[in-house]
Amino acid sequence: MSYAQAAAKGPKQSPEENTEGPASNLIDVDTPHISEVHSDFKQQVQQTTAQAERMAHEAEDQARKASQEASQKSSEYAKKGSDKADELSKAAGKHLEKGKQESSETYDKAKKVASEYYREGKKEANEIKEELRINANEARDDLSSNRDNPVVLGNAIAWTIGGVALGVGAYNKHVKGELDWGIVGITAGAVGVLAVGDYYLSQ
Questions:
Q1: Is 170 exposed, middle or buried (0-12, 13-18, 19+ CB in 10 A)?
Q2: C-beta separation of 163 from 190 below 8 A
Q3: Hey, which bits of 69-132 come out as E strands?
């Protein structure tokens, strides 16, 4: 029995079902008999129902494959990003550790140098202190030994009076605005001459 005979035995179609739509132009090549081929057959995007279903399946497969590839690429990029982040984190950790070590070494060196300078400074300060103590003792001994010497007493009195007189005179000149470098130089020269004369007279 042919398809046409089987269709003729079936129930009659209603007028709504019998209208030609877009699917009526499709030719199913899977059927054993082809009754009509339209002249624009090769220009149609889809030419058979089976081809339309195949194209739909292919589109679904391509979409699924694209989704899987995108997911795989995303996973790969995420893994690469994570690996790179781990690598950078490790490198930063190494640099930080190296920086800490170098900082610690620099601090230890600075501390050692500072400690050496402190010891040397303390030693020099003790030596200077001892030298000053010795000089003070010698000066005290000299004063004690020359306490009764009339020349030493006369010199001390004369220099004290001279120093006070020079100070008062310089202040008065300054207040009047008459103090200049010429007067200072002459006074300093006179004091120097007196000091040399006193030295030789005291011998």
A1: middle
A2: no
A3: none
pLDDT at residue 168 in the model:
92
CA 161 to chain centre: 69
Query: What CA–CA distance (Å, rounded) separates 160 from 195?
Result: 13
Structure tokens at 130: 């001892």
**Which token pair is 100?**
């800490």
- Mean residue pLDDT of the chain comes to 79
Q: Cα separation of 89 and 99, whole Å?
A: 15
- From 40-49, 125-134, 148-157, the region with the lowest mean pLDDT: 40-49
At residue 136, the 3 state secondary structure works out as: helix
More confident residue, 164 or 146: 164
- What does R_g of the chain's alpha carbons equal in angstroms? 60
Place of tokens 């194209």: 55
User: Could you give the C-alpha distances from 141 to 19, 156, 166, 203, in angstroms and in order?
Assistant: 144, 16, 30, 19
Question: Who wins on pLDDT, 1 or 53?
Answer: 53
Q: What is the mean pLDDT of residues 30-49?
A: 58
pTM for this structure?
Answer: 0.29
| Residues contacting 182, CB < 8 A, separation 6+ | none
Work out the pLDDT band at 175, boundaries 50, 70, 90. very high
Are 34 and 2 spatial neighbours (Cβ–Cβ below 8 Å)?
no
Amino acid found at 83: D
